[in-house]
Prior knowledge:
It is built from one helix and 30 strands. It is mainly β. A hairpin with a 2-residue loop joins strand 28 and strand 29. It starts with a helix and ends in a 6-residue tail after the last strand.
Amino acid sequence: MVKNANWISSCILHLASLIFLVACFARSELTPRRAFTAALLDDRIYAMGGWNGQATQLDLVEVIDPQTLRAQPAPPLNIARSQHASVVADDSIWVIGGWSAERGLVSALEIFSPRENVWRIITHLPTPRREPAAALLGRRIVVAGGFDGVNDGDLDGYLDVVEAYDLDAQQWRTLARLHAPRRGLTLVAFENSLYAIGGYVAGDGYLNLVERYDPARAAWQTLDWKIASRTWTATVVADDAIIIAGGFNREGFLGLVERVDPRTGKICNPPPMRVPRSWFAAVPFNHRVLTLGGEEADGIKNTIEWISIQCAK
């Protein structure tokens, strides 16, 4: 009886582990792509644009139920694009900038609300660019950095430009420049400040630079955070912390996850992603982060993986 009980317990434990793995990691109906964005609106995740290795960029938008991970088609973008940014503001998704093989640099900002169920071009970036970062700060959509050069070695193409769109005035204004021009960075808002994180610039390579923007002083300050050097990460704010996941550097595709307390700069490491990758998207949901798609060592995929954002004590 004891032997049978041990065998049953072992089977139950194995089954529980299998269920956990399936819940945290799956190949999905999501279209394989990289250099796209995702946003959470009305408890649904929208995956927008990107590139799947074919001749041109995607105008494809898919909406994902975070409970079932099922993906369904949604109205497409007006302009196919990759290497863009997106934010949620005023109950709508805003898609910003990027690159099109047919059009080149994209200046158009498109807006989508589930109520209207259509994408509309609402304004244009004063400085068209690819690989910028964007975040919502109060009533302003802030767009920082990026690239408008011809090739990777074009140093003048790496941008320190920061522009903000006032949602109420419906006008653009220029903010203080970043201290370091770069592309492939991320930008998040936390407690009325902005944090520009990581990126890449020819010559210096992969960056671990963090700059904080204080709107009261209208200036950027360089912070001494001991994060890993990398670009093309997914960075989100969740559970009162900044979560930096994945990316790419000289070591290749990364599974590294860093959790930073922005008030102190203290860093710890939640469990790494099971699938190292870059140029993917991530959305915080219910005290976890859902990661979507991206480029892995063996190509562009549609991997969906829940990651924990808690560090071991």
